[in-house]
Amino acid sequence: MATAEALDGDISDLRDRIATLQAHRASLTSILLSQPHLPTRLEQRPVLHERNRRNAAKLVQRQSNRNLENVYRACAGVTAYKVKDPDPCAVDNGNVLGVRIDVSVGGRFVDTYHVLFNRPNAAHKTMLKIHKHTIPPCIPLQPLANKWLPLTRKSAEEPREQDLVRFGRHLRKELASWHLRLEALETLQKDAKLPGRIALQEGLQGELEPGMVLNAFVSDDEDSEAEEGANEQDGTPRISSIDGDAAVREITITWSNGTVGIFKVTKDGEVDKAAVRTKEGTRDASLSSQALGRVEGLVRRLEA
Amino acid sequence: MAPKPNTAVPDYRNVPHSHRLPTSHREVQRTFTKLSRQSLVSLANQWLAKKNRDFCRPYLLGDRGADAEEDDEQYTPAQSYEELQEIYKELAARKGGKREIQDRILEGDWRTGISMYQLATAEIQYLLDHPNSLRWTAKRLAKIPSGKNMALDMEVTNDSEHLPRFQAQTFMANLARELTPLMKAHYLLIKIKTMPMTILRVYIHDSPYSTEASLAIDNGSSDNARAVFFIWPNGSNFVYSSIANHFGQVISDDGRHLRDIVQQAIPKAFSRPSARYQLASTNFTTKSLDALLAYRGPGKSNAASGGWSIFQDHNFSQNALDFITSQNDHGKEKNGQRKDGAVGATAKAGPGRPKRTLEDKETSDAKRRREVAAGRFGSSAQPNDGQGLERVEVRIDDAFPAMPNSADDADTSNISEQPANRNRRGRPSLLDRSLDEIEELEGADAWVPDVRVVFQGSHVFAGVRQLVEQGIVDGEKMPGWMTGEAGVTIGAVKEGRIRTKSGQIPGI
């Protein structure tokens, strides 16, 4: 058995090594293909087969396209591209304009979102309509579209100008601030030394309960009684959970002594309203006023 | 918890968690026979947890008290909660039939009755074990536009909120206020950890009393579904609703009526002054919870289904700092082939050997068809992605193709009279033309027959994809709604596109 295990270990080591080497080769390839004078040199040098030259030129072309696209995406954040709708019945012969929004948090690009427009109105060729998109529902896409991409409706008394650039700018702001709030929530959980979202998901497999009952009105903390005894000695209840809604506009913090605080967060990450109630149901005004301020320091302010 | 009143007086209270149903009650029996051994053990352990003990009191030795005449009992009552927990832990570790656990719960440890809380958690457990067991309809909470706040609602500011606010306590209080004058009910609201959603189960108790005794009365004749489920996916404005009918149980008009009452109360419970909500249909019904979360869920996939699914994940939109062009394509192709090969090998293991060799030398035609299917369906409509829609129904609203022979005109006028007379039995379909639409059709001079196409199966769009790959459906001429990109299960098609309301952004 031991030898089989050792062999399995060797195999997986080798697989890992192959994967690293392949990744290394790929990155070397793209560096080589990105050499500035490569196309001209390929043209000048003699080659054995004309086909190889064409293939190489194609690869170089593809790499330089990718480089250009990535530079635009990384620097602009909002970029546009063209798509062809494969649907034979699509409006406007399937011409679709895509807008891509790259969101970066902490020096990394975390996610990419797309909004795809078509032109349903043959008479007004410049009027765009959202055809498909990958914007999560917690982002106010509809109000933004109402504001910056008005459709020609008879009821609208003063037809506003369509402004795709400002639509993109506002949508990007919403998406970026949402990701920043998500990040801030995770930082808070780290500050309070709670298991993060990923750790929670991993731990879920062994968990007994499928969820949290919201209308049971009892403490959800499994060992609350034991802890209450401990808390009476040192007198400081600790934070037992930090939870946010999907849009992270509202953060709920539960303490081990049954105190619950609900904090409203504005889109740019300011805690602007707070309500803290003790287990008996009385309001804790001092904690509530401590909570106001930037969301990143919430736990620090509460524990101070 | 208030002391139980001995007299039955009509009141305005909800049915509390701790009220018990006798173990012989039909609902209890049905629910418990459905659950697997593993789920039963896990449920029993949950009920014995400290925080749930108030709602799930087992029969302990201390409860026997004076009337200790039962000597022939099969299960001796346990001394304490801890002993019971030990017993169930041991049962969990051991192998055995599920009947053993079921009997132990119903005839042993909870012989005095199953509380409403237990019944509710058991049914939710079953729902999570079998996410395709109920039929769900997705609705949307839409704000009723009020003239005064119209301009304000459109504004997107730093602290504006476009989704209805969901606070469990406030919502439950509002809902109970709407419903208690009409019926008594037991509510259980639970936030699921494994899926991004919140489930509300309403057990409808059609009686003016909220006492334990009135719960137990089985009004024999009518075998109605008593429970209704509602699900809110987190961070979106959708609501899924379903009647919790047991397998083979018919949903009577009574059950449907009670569900409608609860359903009407939900937008009212969400509403607050100057923000009124109503439920709007989203033309989407399915049995699969995964499909619901994909098409009407909290993520990126709502408005990018079908071929547009490539925009959801990273195979179209690589990271902006990923400059590598060479490896990605190669790796993917290889992976794809390997996967196909593996699927073929497992499917054709055994007698289908010669078939497989045929498939290996795939003709260029078949390869092209597969590429067309990949282009039209993207990464969606895979037969085992768990997001199958069982039924897709469309009405074709295009005019009948004009006949070169003018003599046919007389015939068509006769035919168009017919459908009105031939009344279909049962409830009116959602696809029946509204009066406006009929009027619109009568104004036009072309004949538009009432043609409906129904696709039915375990996974409709995966089936269409296979038909495209087999060359039975022309992948290039096929209209877009056949790829599932419209994201509806019922709709009217005009000029090859599903009709939508103007100004409506898909997937919101």
Automatic annotation (TrEMBL), chain A:
Main localization (coarse): nucleus
Compositionally biased tracts (Acidic residues): 221-231
Pfam family, one: CENP-O
Subcellular location: Chromosome, Centromere; Nucleus
Region span, Disordered: 221-240
InterPro entries listed in its UniProt record: CENP-O (IPR018464)
Keywords, in A-Z order: Centromere, Chromosome, Nucleus
GO cellular component annotations of the record: Mis6-Sim4 complex; nucleus
Family per record: Belongs to the CENP-O/MCM21 family.
Protein name listed in UniProt: Cenp-O kinetochore centromere component
Organism listed in the record: Paraphaeosphaeria sporulosa
Highest classification ranks of the organism: Eukaryota, Fungi, Dikarya, Ascomycota, Pezizomycotina
From TrEMBL, chain B:
GO terms, biological process: CENP-A containing chromatin assembly; chromosome segregation
Signal peptide from the UniProt entry: none
Domain of life, source organism: Eukaryota
Biased segments, Polar residues type: 412-421
Region of interest called Disordered, as start-end residue ranges on this chain: 1-25, 327-428
Compositionally skewed regions (Basic and acidic residues) per UniProt: 329-341, 356-373, 388-398
Short name of one Pfam family: CENP-N
Name listed for the protein in its UniProt record: CHL4-domain-containing protein
Organism the protein comes from: Paraphaeosphaeria sporulosa
Lineage of source species: Eukaryota, Fungi, Dikarya, Ascomycota, Pezizomycotina
